[in-house]
User: Fold Probable malate:quinone oxidoreductase from Microbacterium soli.
Amino acid sequence: MTETVDVVLIGGGIMSATLGTLLHELQPDWKIVAYERLSEVAQESSNAWNNAGTGHAALCELNYTPQAADGSVDVAKAVAINEQFQLSRQLWSSLVDRGVLSEPDTFINPTPHMTFVRGEKNVSFLKARFEELSKQTLFADMEYSEDSRVINSWAPLLMQKRLKADQPFAATRVTGGTDVDFGSLTRQLFAHLSASGVQVQTNQEVRSLKRQADGTWLVGYRRALGRTPGEIKARFVFVGAGGWALKLLQRSGIPEIKGYGCFPIGGQWLMSSNPEIVARHHAKVYSKATVGAPPMSVPHLDTRVVDGKTSVLFGPFATFSPKFLKNGSNWDIVRQVRPTNLGSMLKVAVTNFDLIRYLVGELLKTHRRKVADLRELMPSAKDEDWTLLQAGQRAQVMHNGTLQFGTEVVASADGSIAGLLGASPGASTAVPIMLGLLERCFPEQYQGWKPALRELIPTLGEKLNDQPDLARTTMAKTAGALSLQG
Assistant:
């Protein structure tokens, strides 16, 4: 007889780990099973080397603050993204207090977030952005400077060998930014779940999802390196399988997935572990994107702390592969095609020539050319100090003829199955995304869960940006719990 469980989580990344943790805290009596097709969890998008590790709080990312034709800057999305990241910080700090997560510096470290731009137009934009953001409670600590001496004190590698006569430049800085190792965070969450009775099964690839007459889902799986089949019934299924989420949701047959497609974009980093470079750079510095480049390809020079070792990354450089995952299939891009999404994908192809041109240009870049791009931010960069590192694979969402760069939850009408599509800001906002999923898919239980959720996330339902005192108190408390002071 096929076993029936309460929840099946598909995919061993930060999304499944976060949802599983929340559900286990809320309903410890529920039986939860997680399946990961690789030999370990956190090997795809959540792996530290496959993402930027930026605690995305809109402190440095220009794409969250669009500028209108009249020069005004809209900061609404930046404020919303920051509010979301505060929820993630609160949950993580609560889990540290409860012993679910170990020493905070194994997954999060204080790292200033900076934006650096060149040219009169960009400087004007950054100044306008700063003036609007600095009025907001959550961005009150932002600093702005056009002084090379000040910027040099913030990030010396930006100024070394740079001539101010070439063109004007400016920078903003928020010292309260973070670098996050989402791989370590994911592994710790799954380790706790496993120790608490949740079945975390690796080397198991989910192959089918079939709705049963009783409302449950029959989940078919097999060993990733063999053909031994298995199946299990679940009252709720979450598909947090990165690029494979689209394929599995299509196989489920839910009408809500019709019209969706994915466009895969890969990435590479330049990495340096040279002690002299590492010692002179402590920040995540974002700059202006190339025309036609997707938001995930905004150039940035990042301090990274992975497994206790510090390095500096620059990139990402876009690559192309038909795979939806680094460990996917070359047929992924073809097998997604359905009559219901073909028109939408063709429209995306016709209306995104800038993106195609950008990708072709990226693919043609040599190592020397990539280091030349790095010199736009770090003029003193030398070819021999930098090596190439393959980053993660992203499956950008295509829907209704539009290429989207956010994340989107697709759920059945009855809430019995849901999956996550898309990329940025992704991992940083895993907590608010999963909170939204809980409210949407478990409406009957959600009201009863609220008291427990507020113990984990004290400001749940509040807007910190509108309450300066609460914001300061909350941010100071989470900084203390996560050892982010200084």
In short: The CA atoms of residues 74 and 104 lie 34 Å apart. The first helix runs from residue 14 to 26. The first strand starts at residue 4 and ends at 10.
